[in-house]
Design goal:
The protein is of the alpha+beta class. The chain is 25% helix and 47% strand. The chain contains 2 helices and 8 strands; from the N terminus they run αββββββββα. The termini are far apart.
Length: 159
């Protein structure tokens, strides 16, 4: 009788742990997604993608764009002065390299088709959260959002 009871208890505990493992795995996957750690985004195509980063300060607004076309990239900085209303921009061009571990390296060494002595470099981590692509700057944690995610036309449900 004891052996039967211990056997039933053992199998019940085993199935209970499997159910808890599935739940824990789902929770860990969601936490990894929130932190920006996706396991496999190698199949995601970033060719012809435009990523946007907007930073609002008390005296100016910065709008930055990264446009990726194949192995070439364009990095645009736009500064809007709130006091005067003037906008200035810098257009850099260069190349982009994508590694197999969701890391994207940008090196922009031309400022409006003139070589600059110190190129603008960005190391970015490609992530997907809630179906939206992001690039996270690994140095300062800035989040660049895919322009398609917020410029898509909203489809209204029919009544």
């Amino acid at each position: 009788m004891k052996k039967l009871f211990i056997g039933i208890l053992f199998f019940g505990a085993t199935f209970g742990f499997k159910a808890q493992y599935g739940t824990l795995n789902n929770i860990l996957s969601r936490l990894e997604e929130r932190k920006g750690i996706n396991k496999n985004l190698e199949s995601v195509n970033i060719d012809d993608k435009k990523f946007v980063f907007i930073k609002d300060s008390s005296d100016h607004t910065e709008r930055n764009f990264i446009v990726i076309k194949g192995k070439n990239a364009t990095y645009v900085e736009v500064f809007d002065d709130k006091a005067t209303g003037e906008s200035t921009s810098n257009v850099f061009s260069g190349d982009v390299v994508r590694s197999r571990k969701n890391i994207i390296s940008l090196r922009a060494d031309l400022l409006e088709n003139k070589k600059v002595p110190i190129p603008v470099t960005k190391t970015l981590l490609l992530t997907r959260q809630d179906g939206i692509l992001y690039l996270i700057d690994v140095n300062n944690k800035d989040r660049w959002i895919d322009e398609e995610s917020f410029s898509k036309p909203k489809i209204k449900a029919k009544k």
